[in-house]
Amino acid sequence: MRISCAGVDAFLLDMSGGAFRNDIQGRIWSLEKLLSDRSEIQTVILGANNLLVVFDCEKHDAATIRHMLHAAWEQTVSAQITPREHVIPVTYGGAGGEDLPFVAQTAGLSESEVVALHTGALYRVAMVGYSPGFGYLTGLPRQLSIARRASPRLVVEQKSVCLGGEFTAVTPSNGPSGWHILGKAHCSALFDATAEDPCLLRAGDIVRFASA
């Protein structure tokens, strides 16, 4: 684990060693919960094989916090999460999935083969970030792991099913994105600020896609 300063009151804990690893992410889920319960820690933000930890620098010495973080990571084991399962119907291609032909061409597959691969995989929510309710899903078949667009779109509609690099996702709201759009999801709102549980997806949840 590498620890870097992120200002005077935060550390970035980086456990990545190249490609994303689910076993490492499981340990990070445990560490997130452990640190969230400590009085000296103010905020813990989950990332992809990394964790941002904000502490009260007026009351606690940075060196002491750094030592505590090292010790906590060494004793952390992968979280035992009972995941919720979501099956999300998707209309692939057409106006709501304009990048399906490009993804197929880049992967050397037919459009139907891309859909079969995308719907045939089992995905896990690694973390929720970027925008409220945006779940980064691991488990994307290697054939579909394609670099993001060189020029992001300024607006991508909510509930767009997209992929970028080694992740796939469903956009929770309208906004810019450099990911490739495969289709349109038919599901509940991914983020509802008025709900008791505002995010449809949580870290550890299982997601499957089905062709609508």
TrEMBL record:
Q: Which GO terms describe its molecular function?
A: ATP binding; hydrolase activity
Question: Is the keyword Lyase in the record?
Answer: no
What does the UniProt keyword field contain?
Answer: ATP-binding, Hydrolase, Nucleotide-binding
The protein's matches in Pfam families, at most eight in alphabetical order, are given as: CT_C_D
Nucleotide-binding recorded as keyword: yes
Q: Which residues form the Carboxyltransferase domain?
A: 1-201
Give the InterPro entries listed for this entry. CT_C_D, Cyclophilin-like_dom_sf, PxpB
PANTHER family, sorted? 5-OXOPROLINASE SUBUNIT B (PTHR34698:SF2)
Name-wise, this protein is: Carboxyltransferase domain-containing protein
Q: Which organism is it from?
A: Acetobacter cerevisiae
Q: What is the lineage of its organism?
A: Bacteria, Pseudomonadati, Pseudomonadota, Alphaproteobacteria, Acetobacterales
